[in-house]
């Protein structure tokens, strides 16, 4: 079934952000200590997620959005809720990560050469709370994304409503 696709910028941002989230997740163990290359890597991947997600959300408001694939009311509502939750955690997880880093007095360099010194007074207890919140938000993001991917595959191959093709480049 042919459906209108998402525009190329939405497509590019969707898959680039998905890859960066995967990258931030697998490098998360490297962000320990008072900073350094591992922290720069994990933090840069995460901050790229934050920045590109902001652009994605802005663009979603500006560009025409294709009409949703027809589906039952409860399913449409669940999809909408899941997308809102994804957008919220895509911003919240990295923001809490940077706050946790700053609150413990560590610093990082975005991409290894743009220093982001901490503007906060070090506070170990607050930093631990923020770190816990960062891990919670990050795990929620990854679990939501897995459920979201499972739902997309269910639409494509069980419901056969062409949903996945909306997010894939046109085949020649
Ligand atoms: C989508 C973005 C992100 C994801 C999915 C993510 C994921 C995670 C996860 C799962 C952990 C827990 C690792 C462990 O088991 O110890 C973690 C820890 C951490 N993350 Fe992130 N993170 C993201 C963005 C960021 C950003 C932007 C920063 C900082 C600029 C950051 C800084 C940290 C720090 C400092 C820790 C604690 C490391 C430690 O002391 O154990 N994260 N992150
Ligand atoms: C970290 C990974 C991912 C994140 C954060 C993510 C996030 C999102 C978000 C927020 C939307 C909502 C678009 C809108 O505003 O309407 C979306 C749409 C979509 N995603 Fe993902 N996604 C991820 C991975 C995947 C994967 C692995 C698949 C496929 C298996 C997938 C398939 C889709 C499809 C088909 C749509 C369009 C739905 C529609 O047109 O109604 N996504 N994604």
Pattern of helices and strands:
HHHEEH
Determine the structural class based on helices, strands and strand pairing: mainly alpha
**What fold name goes in the CATH topology slot?**
Fumarate Reductase Cytochrome B subunit
Q: Provide a count of the helices.
A: 4
Percent strand: under 5%
**Which CATH-level-2 architecture?**
Up-down Bundle
Rg (C-alpha, Å):
18 Å
The CATH class label is Mainly Alpha
Domain Cytochrome b561 bacterial/Ni-hydrogenase: 5-169
Protein name: Cytochrome b/b6 domain-containing protein
Subcellular location: Cell membrane
Keywords: Cell membrane, Electron transport, Heme, Iron, Membrane, Metal-binding, Transmembrane, Transmembrane helix, Transport
Description:
The protein is mostly helical and 172 residues long. The chain has one domain: Fumarate Reductase Cytochrome B subunit, CATH 1.20.950. Helices cover 65% and strands 3% of the residues. It contains four helices and two strands. The protein has a two-stranded antiparallel ribbon. Helix 2 runs antiparallel to helix 3 and helix 3 packs antiparallel against helix 4. The protein is elongated, with a radius of gyration of 18 Å. It starts with 7 loop residues before the first helix and ends in a 13-residue tail after the last helix. It binds protoporphyrin IX containing FE (2 copies). One protoporphyrin IX containing FE binds next to helix 1, helix 2, helix 3 and helix 4.
Blueprint (SSEs and pairs):
Layout: H1 8-26, H2 37-62, H3 73-103, E1 108-110, E2 114-116, H4 124-159
Antiparallel strand pairs: 1-2
Helix pairs in contact: 1-2, 2-3, 3-4
The chain binds protoporphyrin IX containing FE (2 copies).
Residues 21, 24-25, 28-29, 31-32, 42-43, 46-47, 49, 93-94, 97-98, 100-101, 108, 131, 134-135, 138, 141 line the site of one protoporphyrin IX containing FE (HEM).
């Amino acid at each position: 079934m042919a459906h209108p696709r998402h525009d190329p910028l939405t497509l590019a941002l969707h898959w680039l952000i998905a890859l960066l989230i995967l990258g931030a997740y697998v490098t998360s163990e490297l962000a320990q200590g008072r900073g350094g290359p591992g922290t720069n890597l994990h933090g840069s991947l995460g901050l790229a997620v934050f920045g590109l997600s902001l652009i994605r959300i802005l663009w979603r408001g500006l560009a025409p959005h294709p009409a949703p694939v027809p589906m039952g009311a409860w399913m449409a509502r669940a999809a909408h809720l899941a997308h809102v939750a994804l957008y919220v955690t895509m911003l919240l997880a990295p923001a809490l990560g940077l706050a946790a880093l700053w609150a413990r007095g560590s610093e990082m360099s975005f991409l290894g050469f743009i220093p982001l010194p901490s503007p906060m007074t070090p506070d170990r207890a607050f930093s631990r709370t923020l770190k816990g919140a960062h891990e919670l938000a990050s795990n929620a993001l990854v679990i939501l994304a897995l459920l979201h991917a499972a739902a997309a595959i269910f639409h494509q191959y069980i419901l056969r409503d062409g949903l996945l093709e909306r997010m894939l480049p046109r085949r020649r």
